[in-house]
Amino acid sequence: MSVVGFDLGSQSCYVAVATGGVIETVTNEYSDRSTGSYVSFGQRLRCAGTSAKNQAITNLKNTTFGFKRLLGLSYDHPLAQTEMSNLINEFVKTDNNEIGYKVRYLDEEHIFTPLELIVAMLTKLKNVAETALQSKVTDCVISIPIYFADSQRRQVLDAARIAGLNCLRLLNDTTAAALAYGFYKSDLPNADSETAKNVAFVDMGYTGFQVSICALKKESVKILSSVADHTLGGREIDYRLLQHFIEVFKVKYRLDINEKPKAKLRLLSECEKLKKLMSANTTEIPMNIECLMNDRDVSGRMKRADMEELCQDLFDKIPVALNKALANAKITAQEIASIEIVGGSTRIPAVKQALQTFFGQEISTTLNQDEAVAKGCALQCA
Ligand code: ATP
Ligand code: MG
User: Fold this and answer.
1) pLDDT of 32-84, one tens digit each?
2) Between helices 114-133 and 150-162, what is the axis angle to 10°?
3) Domain 3-171 is in which class?
4) Could you give the residue range(s) of every CATH 3.30.420.40 domain in the chain?
5) How far apart are the first and last CA of the chain?
6) Is the ipTM of this complex over 0.85?
7) Helix (H) or strand (E) holding 250
8) d(CA 296, CA 79)
9) Architecture of 234-312 per CATH?
10) Ligand in nearest proximity to the CA of 307
11) Percent of the chain residues topping a pLDDT of 70
12) Protein residues whose CB sits closer than 6 Å to any atom of ligand 1
């Protein structure tokens, strides 16, 4: 039976399978390797993944998102309060002080905890793997962020069990990336050699910035240190852009986007698109949105340099995390032989630049930024 690796991302998930010494990521029913981390509820059906993501705007109130970050937190936890304030969904406090997403499902009101939504997501991912493999899937390895506490790790294991999966191991995202790297790199020092190759694995995704300093030899990965900053993800940049355009549109069109959740969500999604375009272009990029609010079309523009200025304090957090990681590993930047990046937000030029400046060397892109974590998970028990 194959072992399957799941990169359970906050915004999107990937599934990798290890069969006969080959590791590959598989596609979902949309022929896409990325599966959105959304669960949507309707009058008759519940769905998870990309079909749920497609309802994020049309079925706004009943489409849940952001549950990975809320997993294992009590309703009153300050972090949970901040997370919930950034989400469009309606939340309630359950009798056990748990977080509940309030939705209408099968024409009734229902409350779902983050755990139940993770179960729905894992069930979906299991299904994607089973369709690709044309066989039943039980054994799996799941990735989680470095900053997950024990209670959150336990909840992922519980969710896997409820979804009918046997989770052989949980792997930190950056550890999974290191395993994938070790698999593809043929020029690592021999197992009996005295010196290992020191590599920094950096993952910046939707919710956080993570780094692991690892010492690699053939068939061995030693994690020297792992540090995470969960206040530095791609979404922080989207929120900055959102705030900027809310202010601009207040003056330009006398519209308060904050008043209309749907308009706010649409603007946020356009800000994310703009951010991605700015990764590949330095020129000014237009943003046009039809009927954003009160039947008004709106437009704005921004160039990469403006975004970098708006977000400079966020990018300044990168060397802070890296310094901590090196100090914990007890090595210097000069002793790092290679910097490997994964996660969607490492495509941002300012992020790459901050890494390059810190380590004084070019970034290496041995790994597939999106798929390496899932592949590392599939490899773990292959
Ligand atoms: P997490 O690891 O935090 O749980 P995730 O694994 O779902 O989240 P990723 O898929 O690694 O996150 O990355 C998603 C983030 O990367 C989003 O914030 C997205 O906007 C950002 N991103 C993707 N492509 C680009 C790009 N070309 N330029 C800038 N940002 C990008
Ligand atoms: Mg991730």
Assistant:
1) 999 999 999 999 999 999 999 999 999 999 999 999 999 999 999 999 999 99
2) 50
3) alpha beta
4) 3-171
5) 10
6) yes
7) helix 234-253
8) 35
9) Alpha-Beta Complex (3.90)
10) 1
11) 99
12) 9-12, 68, 205-208, 233-235, 272, 275-276, 279, 343-345, 347-348
